[in-house]
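Weekly sync, protein design subgroup
Attendees: M.S., D.O., the rotation student, P.L. (late)

Item 1: inverse folding check
M.S. brought a backbone from last month's batch and wanted to see whether the design step gives back something sensible before we order anything. D.O. pointed out we never logged the input encoding, so this time it goes straight into the notes. C-alpha coordinates as presented (136 positions):
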Protein backbone atom coordinates (compact mmCIF):
# COMPACT_ATOMS: atom_id res chain seq x y z
CA UNK A 1 0.00 0.00 0.00
CA UNK A 2 1.24 3.50 -0.80
CA UNK A 3 1.76 5.72 2.22
CA UNK A 4 2.63 9.14 0.77
CA UNK A 5 4.69 11.12 -1.69
CA UNK A 6 8.28 9.86 -1.79
CA UNK A 7 10.32 12.01 -4.16
CA UNK A 8 10.26 13.95 -7.40
CA UNK A 9 12.91 13.38 -10.08
CA UNK A 10 13.33 15.93 -12.85
CA UNK A 11 15.38 15.26 -15.98
CA UNK A 12 17.62 18.29 -16.59
CA UNK A 13 19.99 19.26 -19.41
CA UNK A 14 22.42 21.51 -17.52
CA UNK A 15 22.98 20.30 -13.96
CA UNK A 16 24.86 23.35 -12.56
CA UNK A 17 22.19 25.70 -14.00
CA UNK A 18 19.40 23.62 -12.45
CA UNK A 19 21.17 23.43 -9.09
CA UNK A 20 21.52 27.23 -9.09
CA UNK A 21 17.83 27.59 -9.98
CA UNK A 22 16.50 25.26 -7.28
CA UNK A 23 19.07 26.03 -4.58
CA UNK A 24 19.83 29.73 -5.02
CA UNK A 25 16.63 31.07 -6.57
CA UNK A 26 13.99 28.81 -4.97
CA UNK A 27 16.12 28.20 -1.86
CA UNK A 28 15.76 24.41 -1.56
CA UNK A 29 18.37 22.84 0.73
CA UNK A 30 21.22 21.29 -1.26
CA UNK A 31 21.84 17.84 0.27
CA UNK A 32 24.18 16.15 -2.22
CA UNK A 33 25.53 16.41 -5.75
CA UNK A 34 27.30 14.03 -8.11
CA UNK A 35 28.41 14.13 -11.74
CA UNK A 36 24.96 13.32 -13.10
CA UNK A 37 22.62 14.57 -10.39
CA UNK A 38 21.77 16.31 -7.18
CA UNK A 39 19.52 15.86 -4.18
CA UNK A 40 17.73 18.87 -2.75
CA UNK A 41 15.01 19.08 -0.14
CA UNK A 42 12.32 21.03 1.65
CA UNK A 43 10.36 19.73 4.63
CA UNK A 44 8.30 16.90 3.16
CA UNK A 45 9.94 17.04 -0.28
CA UNK A 46 12.88 15.14 -1.70
CA UNK A 47 13.86 16.45 -5.14
CA UNK A 48 16.30 14.66 -7.41
CA UNK A 49 17.81 16.41 -10.44
CA UNK A 50 19.03 13.86 -12.97
CA UNK A 51 21.22 14.87 -15.91
CA UNK A 52 19.58 13.69 -19.14
CA UNK A 53 21.01 14.98 -22.44
CA UNK A 54 17.96 13.60 -24.26
CA UNK A 55 15.47 15.80 -22.36
CA UNK A 56 13.23 17.80 -24.67
CA UNK A 57 12.78 21.13 -22.89
CA UNK A 58 10.03 22.39 -25.21
CA UNK A 59 6.98 23.68 -23.38
CA UNK A 60 4.32 20.98 -23.33
CA UNK A 61 0.72 22.07 -23.76
CA UNK A 62 -0.74 20.09 -20.85
CA UNK A 63 -1.42 21.27 -17.29
CA UNK A 64 0.98 18.84 -15.59
CA UNK A 65 3.04 20.79 -13.06
CA UNK A 66 4.70 20.61 -9.65
CA UNK A 67 3.50 22.93 -6.89
CA UNK A 68 5.48 24.16 -3.92
CA UNK A 69 3.86 25.68 -0.82
CA UNK A 70 4.79 29.25 0.04
CA UNK A 71 3.61 31.26 3.05
CA UNK A 72 1.45 34.27 2.27
CA UNK A 73 4.02 36.54 3.95
CA UNK A 74 6.76 35.27 1.60
CA UNK A 75 4.78 35.13 -1.66
CA UNK A 76 5.43 38.66 -2.98
CA UNK A 77 9.17 38.51 -2.31
CA UNK A 78 9.43 35.12 -4.06
CA UNK A 79 7.55 36.37 -7.13
CA UNK A 80 9.70 39.51 -7.25
CA UNK A 81 12.89 37.40 -7.03
CA UNK A 82 11.72 35.09 -9.83
CA UNK A 83 10.66 37.96 -12.07
CA UNK A 84 13.96 39.77 -11.43
CA UNK A 85 15.72 36.61 -12.61
CA UNK A 86 13.55 36.73 -15.77
CA UNK A 87 11.98 33.36 -15.06
CA UNK A 88 9.36 32.55 -17.68
CA UNK A 89 5.72 32.52 -16.54
CA UNK A 90 3.47 29.92 -18.17
CA UNK A 91 0.00 30.65 -16.79
CA UNK A 92 -2.03 33.23 -14.88
CA UNK A 93 -3.61 32.27 -11.56
CA UNK A 94 -7.26 31.29 -12.01
CA UNK A 95 -8.05 29.60 -8.71
CA UNK A 96 -8.23 30.13 -4.95
CA UNK A 97 -5.09 31.28 -3.21
CA UNK A 98 -2.20 33.26 -4.56
CA UNK A 99 -0.23 31.30 -7.17
CA UNK A 100 2.68 32.03 -9.44
CA UNK A 101 3.20 29.63 -12.37
CA UNK A 102 6.72 29.52 -13.81
CA UNK A 103 9.19 27.34 -15.70
CA UNK A 104 12.51 25.97 -14.50
CA UNK A 105 15.50 26.16 -16.89
CA UNK A 106 14.48 22.86 -18.57
CA UNK A 107 10.85 23.83 -19.09
CA UNK A 108 9.37 21.90 -16.14
CA UNK A 109 6.16 23.62 -15.11
CA UNK A 110 6.22 24.78 -11.49
CA UNK A 111 3.86 26.66 -9.21
CA UNK A 112 4.35 28.53 -5.95
CA UNK A 113 1.01 28.37 -4.11
CA UNK A 114 -0.38 29.95 -0.96
CA UNK A 115 -2.98 27.62 0.54
CA UNK A 116 -3.65 23.93 0.90
CA UNK A 117 -6.27 21.34 0.08
CA UNK A 118 -8.51 22.49 2.95
CA UNK A 119 -8.55 26.11 1.74
CA UNK A 120 -9.15 24.96 -1.85
CA UNK A 121 -12.12 22.79 -0.82
CA UNK A 122 -13.57 25.62 1.25
CA UNK A 123 -13.39 27.96 -1.77
CA UNK A 124 -14.91 25.27 -3.99
CA UNK A 125 -17.79 24.75 -1.58
CA UNK A 126 -18.51 28.49 -1.82
CA UNK A 127 -18.16 28.50 -5.62
CA UNK A 128 -18.08 24.92 -6.99
CA UNK A 129 -16.68 23.97 -10.39
CA UNK A 130 -19.22 22.67 -12.91
CA UNK A 131 -20.40 19.18 -11.88
CA UNK A 132 -18.39 19.23 -8.64
CA UNK A 133 -19.26 16.74 -5.88
CA UNK A 134 -17.89 16.57 -2.35
CA UNK A 135 -17.42 13.43 -0.31
CA UNK A 136 -17.26 12.91 3.44
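Designed sequence read out in the meeting:
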Amino acid sequence: MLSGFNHLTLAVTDLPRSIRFYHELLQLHLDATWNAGAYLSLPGLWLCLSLDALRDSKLAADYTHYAFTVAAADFTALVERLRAARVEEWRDNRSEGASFYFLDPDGHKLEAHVGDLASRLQACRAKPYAGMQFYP
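Discussion: The chain has three helices and eight strands. The longest strand covers residues 45-51.
Action: P.L. to compare against the previous round before Friday.
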